[in-house]
Amino acid sequence: MKKWLLMTIFVLIIGVLAACGGGNETSGGKEGKEKVVIGYFPNIDHAPAMIAREKGYYEEALGENVEIEYRTFPDGGTFMTALKSGEIDTGLVGPGPVLNNYSNGANVKIIGGASTGGTVVVASEQSGIENLEDMKGKTFITPGIGCTHDVQFETFLMEKDLDDLASARIGGSLKHVTGNPATYQGMFETGQVDLAAVPEPWATILIENGANVVVSTEEIAYGENLPNVVLVASGNLIEENKETVQGLVKAQQKAIDFIHNNQEETQDIVIKAIKDLTKQEMDKEIVAKAMDRMTYTTEIDEEVLKEFGQSSFDLEFLKETPNFDGLVLKSN
């Protein structure tokens, strides 16, 4: 079975998982315990959550009086909806959805980093794209409109200042569509799309299946400096239980330390965690290559986040000039 078909099955299963995860309450745990619901995606850039879950770091940091529940999500939009509605309390998500929701008044804050880098723009073999000029009039795909990877790619194009080298949404010649990265290989093969601005491990999967890298992680806007996944929490959790928030940050740091010191075991845990959720096993060599394009860190460069947010406004994803003061929770 081709990898793209496996990935298509993968995304369908994830969708079912997300749908089946509804109805969780964030309080009133067993035997009067406080309940904390943690969300994340079954992607390798969310490895800190998988490691912390597997190793019991959340339980260790939050204590025996806290009951922990987990939910997985297919995209940042559904994650943020769950966070704002109180279905989850905290978790890992890309900065794009967080910035967009915060600018619209959502009571959320970033409490730590998770990973940086990993966004790559690749072109299908049959697209004929070999340089930037070849992109004109082509179709590109990203996981969502105004998502982290979309903003990175469109900012990269904007900085090149080439005629028509922009999304048709803002007057350029490029057609923009969206979809889950697990389906991109099939869309490449059928000629539905020419380019993809995609996170790992999907970039490596596409490359292994013949796609060409046209914009590397190092070249794309905000490349290796932008947090591509952050640890975010609801304002209610932050206001009502600072000790829990501190414990989450502590568990995150411990998970990232483990990743740095145990690469081989980390890959095994991530592969198993994804297989448990999706019933599909990722190739270890692909996971290793994908992880090489990322850096796992709890550090947050707030200025880069603000610049990224300004880019979202310049690209007309945000209607008003953003103010992201207070978005990143300052450590005591």
From TrEMBL:
Keyword Transport: yes
Organism of origin: Oceanobacillus caeni
Highest taxon of the lineage: Bacteria
Subcellular location: Cell inner membrane; Periplasm
Protein name stated in the entry: ABC transporter substrate-binding protein
Lineage: Bacteria, Bacillati, Bacillota, Bacilli, Bacillales
Keyword Ribosomal protein annotated: no
Keywords: Cell inner membrane, Cell membrane, Membrane, Signal, Transport
Family: Belongs to the bacterial solute-binding protein SsuA/TauA family.
